[in-house]
Amino acid sequence: MILHSSVTVTGIEGLPLIQKGDDLPQLISERCALENGDIICIASTIISKAKGYSRSLCDVSPGQQATHIASVTGEDPRFLQVVLDQACDVLVETPFTLTELPFGHVGVRSGVDASNVEDGLVIVLPPDPMKEAKEVRESLLRITGKECGVIVTDTCGRSFRRGQTGHAIGWSGMTAIRDFRGDTDLFGRTLEITEEAVIDEISGFANLIMGESNNGIPAVHFRGIPKWTGHDNIYFRPEEDIIRKALKKM
Prior knowledge:
By secondary structure, this protein is of the alpha+beta class. The protein has helices at residues 24-29, 44-51, 64-73, 77-86, 129-144, 198-210, 242-248, and strands spanning 8-11, 39-43, 54-56, 89-92, 98-100, 106-108, 121-123, 149-158, 161-172, 177-179, 195-196, 219-223, 230-231. It is built from seven helices and 13 strands. The strands form four sheets. Strands 1-12-2-8-9 form a five-stranded mixed beta sheet. The longest helix has 16 residues, at 129-144. It is globular, with a radius of gyration of 19 Å.
């Protein structure tokens, strides 16, 4: 991997409030001149809005588990039922609900979001973010003729640290991990365990540009990031994950 002298990072401004049925690749391409090798980070929220991945709380009937958690946390049991509906495993119930989603992501409250959406609705994460990233990349190629990478991002907390950062939940056109194993360090020693989560590093910077609350910049354009090689095994297998094992013992 040869480092370039500069990387350009630009928020894609002027996107409208996304509604179900909106053509995100078209809207992005109209506001961003793409070149081969560029990377576009897109907040999962607008993917979900465009695809209609939302739930109306008035249509949700909370079950026993959601009602129990709500009695401890003070949250809306209907909201918690949506959280449980999205999950394939519940690692922690309280003081916050930590869940695993079918595509491998582990996050608080299944990534269900009640902000920046109409009252009474909640947005859920795309059920297959990898598919969404691939669809956007292929559409951008068709519209612009340019080969770009696409990352779908979501904001998540981190163990042992306060605050949220951007994480990649779907990607296309690159590998998730840059694998240094087998390379040598400055002193000629062979690296044995170093794997860099490049897509999360890019997503974290994208989130800095996107901001939170009412900033209104849900897509970010990167240019000048060199290509890398590696693999896509970003999620630990259950038997490897010591944190999951510890949580399950609680």
